[in-house]
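Re: the 322-residue chain
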Amino acid sequence: MNLIICMTPFQMLMAEKIVEKKQSEIFYLLVFYSVWNDKYQYYMEKVLCKKNVFFLKKCFISPNNHFSRLYKSVLVRIYGFLLCKKFNKVYIANLDNPWIRLLLSSLGKFELYTFDDGTANIFKNSFFYKNDSFRVNLIMKLLFSRYTRHDLRKMSLVHYTIYDNKENIVDKDKLVYVSMREGIVKISPHEVTSSKERVNLLLGQPIDSIFISVNDGVSVVKKIIEVFNINYYYPHPRERFIIDGVNYIKSKLIFEDYFVSQFRLNVEYTIYTFYSGAPLSFINLPNVKIISIKPDICRNEIVQDFEIMKSFGVEVIDYTCQ
């Protein structure tokens, strides 16, 4: 039997695609979450619709929990439940996550398989490529954790990725490409009709990961919508602000699924983003243009992420915020 652990709607979409490739194998789905909304429910139900997938448990994790509370609220709740099952294979995305690493430490011998969490897999300054702090290492050892994130990277036998021919957390010979473009017919430039409609769409991202000041970030987003004539805004699920004068896209679908469902050949799409990996699956479609906006007041630690966007062929625009 296989255990597959997810923490986000995107990860559950990846899980769905993985289990479709392994229809002769049985999977149990375990979901950790800190927020729950329509997207989470929708993608969990999609995975569980597969005949070879069974529901194991859904565990709420407060983002402010300390490790002592973590041990009590998570491990004790599921440890006994998991012990009665023998998992030969385990699939995870968040190999940095202490909840998952503690859980894996309570299992017996298993084969490890990994899959993308997002751009953190290809951005070399992300948490996947960093070592734990001394404090975290100490606490994990006190809780009898057997694995570091580096250990799990080495243990992974196969990694499923949406980023074709890009370096990831494992060696290239372990990568298996997963397409997010299923449902879009393969097209060439001469097949695109003379477009009459143009759609400028801005893809939201967590503001606090881009700007030191959230208020500054919100102001920049508002200016970008005005300057680049954005007519549709796809908000990030964690956003707490509302912007007037733009059409909000409200959908239970994550962006990749939403775009596939709405895609038309007679529309010219320009997708604006800061450095989100969500639109990268559509980079080579002849009627789709992706533009990355690099604000001059963005956090220093994300500057190199824009270089990775360039490596995909994305146009990066330097934007002066003042």
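The chain has a mean pLDDT of 86.
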